[in-house]
Structures are given as structure tokens and as C-alpha cells.
Design goal:
This protein has 161 residues and is an alpha+beta fold. The protein has one domain. Helices cover 23% and strands 32% of the residues. A 7-stranded antiparallel β-sheet has the order 1-7-3-4-5-6-2. The N terminus is likely disordered.
Length: 161
């Protein structure tokens, strides 16, 4: 499975809202968990996951020197699914890339897009509640999830965004 990143063209907020995407139902046995609340193991994994599927990247830009850029990946495992973030630590030199397990769920009968959608949805809801995360500024690159898919997920998390 490829982790190829494809570029997406920025779309105005009016065009984004006109894209209608209906989110698939959450798979019955997925049971999403947030890694920070319920750790998958006592020692958190930090190495890059194998067999990762690129979902998309999003940017939050609060100021020219304060931003957040996340690359989201889905990884199948023998027991379930994992949602990962790949980000750069740029607070000091040299900059370095880090992998962070965000959420996970059980093996279930559903396609990768549906599973990725629901793990991301639960993670963003949790992050919005516990860290007051606001709506991202833009989707930079689409992957398995299109810009319209990501905007539909965001619409469930940030109702007024």
C-alpha cells in the first residue's frame, strides 16, 4: 500500500461547504479508543508504522511563527487499526520528524476509508473537547480521504466551523 501524497488545490470556504459528503456509518465492532486516554501498551510506540496508508494532511496556522502541520496515516495491525500522525518538531535545531499513535480500534468488517473516517472523527472530537482544538485552516494534501471527506468529518466536530 502506498503512502504517496497528492497535492490538492485550495478551495474557497463557500465551495467547500457546497461539497456534500455523507459519512459512512461507524462499523459496529470498531470501538475507537484514544491513545492518550487508553494507551494501547505501557510503552508507546514511536517508530514509523509499517504498511501505512496515507489519509491526508492538514494545517492550523495561528500566526506566521505558530502553526501545526499534521500528516495522518492509517495502519492495519493483526488485532485492529491505528491512526497515526507524522509531524515535524521544529522548536529547536535540528528539526526532526516524529510518529505519534493517536487512536486505535478493533478489527472489523469495513473498508479502510470508513475506518480512517471514524478513527479521525473520534480523535478530533476528543482533541476539540480536551485541548480546545479549533477547525484547521486548510487541507494541504489529500490521500485516501479527499478534501471533501475531511471537510465532512470536520463538519461533525466543529459545527460552527
Amino acid at each position: 500500500m502506498s503512502s504517496k501524497r497528492t497535492s490538492s488545490i485550495l478551495v474557497s470556504p463557500i465551495e467547500q461547504r457546497n461539497s456534500v459528503v455523507v459519512l459512512p456509518k461507524r462499523p459496529k465492532y470498531l470501538h475507537p479508543k484514544i491513545e492518550e486516554d487508553t494507551p494501547l501498551s505501557p510503552q508507546p510506540p514511536t517508530a514509523a508504522p509499517r504498511n501505512r496508508i496515507y489519509l491526508f494532511s492538514a494545517e492550523w496556522a495561528w500566526s506566521p511563527i505558530n502553526n501545526r502541520l499534521n500528516y495522518y496515516f492509517l495502519t492495519p495491525t493483526q488485532t485492529g487499526w491505528q491512526l497515526w500522525n507524522n509531524y515535524t518538531e521544529d522548536g529547536h535545531l535540528p528539526w526532526s520528524w516524529h510518529w505519534q499513535l493517536l487512536a486505535y480500534g478493533n478489527r472489523c468488517r469495513a473498508n479502510e476509508k470508513t475506518i480512517g473516517t471514524h478513527l479521525l472523527l473520534e480523535f478530533w472530537k476528543w482533541e476539540a473537547e480536551y485541548y480546545s482544538l479549533e477547525h484547521y485552516d486548510k487541507v494541504l494534501h489529500s490521500g485516501l480521504l479527499s478534501k471533501a471527506d475531511v471537510n465532512a468529518i470536520a463538519g461533525k466536530v466543529w459545527k460552527n466551523g
